[in-house]
Design a protein that fits this description.
single chain; about 55 residues; endoplasmic reticulum; OST4; signal-anchor
Length: about 55
């Protein structure tokens, strides 16, 4: 069986791991650039239209 000390150490480890993952997730989310598929599609269409206009 698992002892109380082992259970305590496991709980502390999992809690610290969860907090680290939460901080990393928020860091990545705040610093991410947002490019929706609609924005990319509109940008490609605008470039194609500009290319046709310049010819």
């Amino acid at each position: 069986m698992i002892t109380d000390d082992q259970l305590y150490n496991l709980a502390v480890f999992l809690g610290m791991s969860a907090m680290v993952l939460i901080v990393v997730y928020h860091f990545l989310e705040v610093n991410a650039t947002e490019e929706s598929p609609e924005t990319v599609k509109v940008g490609v269409q605008a470039q194609a239209a500009a290319g046709k206009a310049s010819r």
